[in-house]
Amino acid sequence: MNPISRPYPLGLTLTADGANFAIYSETADSVDFCTFDESDESGETRTTLAERTGHVFHGTVTNVAPGTRYGIRVAGAWDPANGLRHNPNKLLLDPYARAVEGQYTWGQEVFAHDQGDPARLDDSDSAPFTPRSVVVDPTFDWAGDVGPATPLAETVIYEVHVKGFTQLHPDVPEEIRGSYAGLAHPAAIKHLTDLGVTAVELLPVHQFVHDSHLQEKGLRNYWGYNSIGFFAPHGDYSSDGEGGGQVNEFKNMVKALHAAGLEVIMDVVFNHTAEGNHLGPTLSFKGIDNASYYRLVDDDRASYFDTTGTGNSFNVGHPAALGLIMDSLRYWVTEMHVDGFRFDLATTLTRQIGSAELHSAFLTLVHQDPVLAPVKMIAEPWDTAGYQVGGFPADWSEWNGKFRDDVRDFWNGDDQVLGTLTKRILGSPDVYEADRRSPLSSVNFITAHDGLTLADLVSYAEKHNEANGEDNQDGESDNRSANGGIEGPTDDEGIVAFRSRQQRNLLASVLLSAGVPMILGGDELGRTQRGNNNAYCQDDEISWFDWATVDRGLLDFTAALIAVRRANPALRPTWFRSAPGEGQHTVTVLQAGGGEFADEDWHNPDIRSVVFVFEHDGASAFALLLNAAGNGVEVTIPEAPGSAWELVVSSDPALALDPESPSLIIGDHCFSLLESRP
User: Does any domain span residue 45?
Assistant: First the structure.
């Protein structure tokens, strides 16, 4: 007699008798759990799940242990016109698999429909052409692991790719370069701690799929925004193999980063999956319960409602899909010890019936979940159907696209942007203050993975994505580059000096503004992608960090800025207005001549400079001088609230601060930071 199985938890749970397996499907007729003999790929053993509770099929399976490779086959109606896409000939990944081994071989076999006739079922067996789910031993020695729990006000985020960071690092052993173990290596961690960042935000590490159209061109999905396994660390980043070793390697990485005082934030892609639209492959969800996991077009159930630009949108209006997201988030916090999440195209996750909703089920569940309450939640607050900066709850932070655009415009010398620039430096009160949100709602950035690097931003006026194989038609045109009108590399000393100043100006704008700063990994090194602003498919030297050509001056400059920020509360206010118990924050905004701005001054195209004075009770005060004019500007030095002003850091190599003089000349396209000690 078989032991009694349970409908929860979903997925595979090891037991004394083998394993319990449970899977949700409202529309399936039967589900087979399939195991494979490692020594004989054709050796498949199927166990029909004998029980069903509600919409959960479940059963006990024997001869299952850590390392067992498995998949599922789901039988049911084939009726695409009504959203039903069951095909038991297709081996599917377990949505709750903790590890995945292998890659897809693209061909008719991995498509449930006949590619010549999408309404017709294909009866070829996909098993020889698909990856396997892998049973994982959940035990791990977390002894001594304590997450840093860095307050948001003290957080500095470093967005980085697991592979690209160490693939060429000379001090990381070759056998672990580009892996979780590589990121955990002392040489990699030393760079992060010397730089002074407090958190790494990892580009997607959920198991993802390399798109067939890229492989046909000899390219790969480098960024990883093509998820298929929301519980499995991506196997390609494991130096310990894909047979489950990637899980412990990821855990060891987290433990090592925590020991160094660094938090781990995951960029997660719950808005869509790698299965694409009605012409896409059937890899998992589509063959399990298509209508529960994906949003379908109401009057055309064969088609997918798409607000992600990828062919499908995950159906957060359905309890099964929403429950999977919540289970995944809790798993990564409780079992993998991560410290936060950045949600790709997060606005899609708030669309239950079409429009974005502040009180959507997704946001409500996250808000009330005690496991998720302590972790950092960061939204990319837009999708292809809408822009929602400022539209997330008070306990969320958001990638502030307005900061990126307005600060770039200012340093480009655009007219009439001084007013918006000032708001961005002060934490975007125009976006957040009316809803009683704080500056910490704003994640400030100038560059991110999606776009030009900082070095390229100041060096190219146009994108150069030729290597992507799409005739340079992919990627958004970037009309906010800060290159001074000179395209591409140059040996001209004046242009080189200008670009060096612009890099420092932009970094300073991020690191000295109210809010949560984020820098793109490699910007501090002068990393270039040769003008490619959409390097999602470049798993090569275009994307990898080149540790042989580090701009040491820029690296030291960035570390100095971060150190100043972290050491001084005046530069990182937690509220737009001072809150009880945090000390008195004051900000004064002045013209270069020393007077306050009149309303009409904000729109005067001749005014391109501004002075901020930041003060905090009992701490150093700072004067931040910004000049985006094409000429030097005389600045009346504000009265020092403490000791005489001292120069801390500047992008102006010619700046001379005379303690006896009431003014100074700040050069064209330059910033300077002065400090008055208490």
Answer: no
344 noted as active-site residue: yes
Domain total in the chain: 2
CATH number at residue 353: 3.20.20.80
Whole-angstrom distance, CA of residue 224 vs CA of residue 229:
12
Same domain? For 468 and 524 the reply is yes
Do the domain assignments include residue 416? Answer: yes
- Catalytic residue flag (residue 380): yes
Q: Which residue out of 289, 380, 398, 675 is catalytically annotated?
A: 380
- Residues 627 and 497 grouped into a single domain: no
In CATH, what number is assigned to the domain containing residue 623? 2.60.40.1180
Query: In 3D, which of 159, 184, 163, 185 has the Cα closest to residue 172?
Result: 185
State the residue for tokens 């701005």.
597
- Complete DSSP assignment for 327-352: HHHHHHHHTT---EEEETTHHHHTBS
**Domain assignment of residue 590, given as a range:** 585-676
Looking at 242, 289, 344, 539, which residue is catalytic?
A: 344
Tens digit of pLDDT for each residue in 160-211?
Answer: 999 999 999 999 999 999 999 999 999 999 999 999 999 999 999 999 999 9
Residue 362 one-letter amino acid: F
Question: 550 and 471, same structural domain?
Answer: yes
Residue 174 in any domain: the answer is no
Reported as a single tens digit per residue, the pLDDT across 528-581 is 999 999 999 999 999 999 999 999 999 999 999 999 999 999 999 999 875 545
pLDDT digits (tens, 9 = 90+) for 361-381: 999 999 999 999 999 999 999
The DSSP result for 35-67, as a single string, is: EEETTEEEEEEEEE--EEETTEEEEEESS--TT
453 SS3 class: coil
CA dihedral in degrees (126, 127, 133, 137; nearest 10)? 180
Q: Is 562 contained in some domain?
A: yes
Helices (H) and strands (E) in the chain, counts: 15, 34
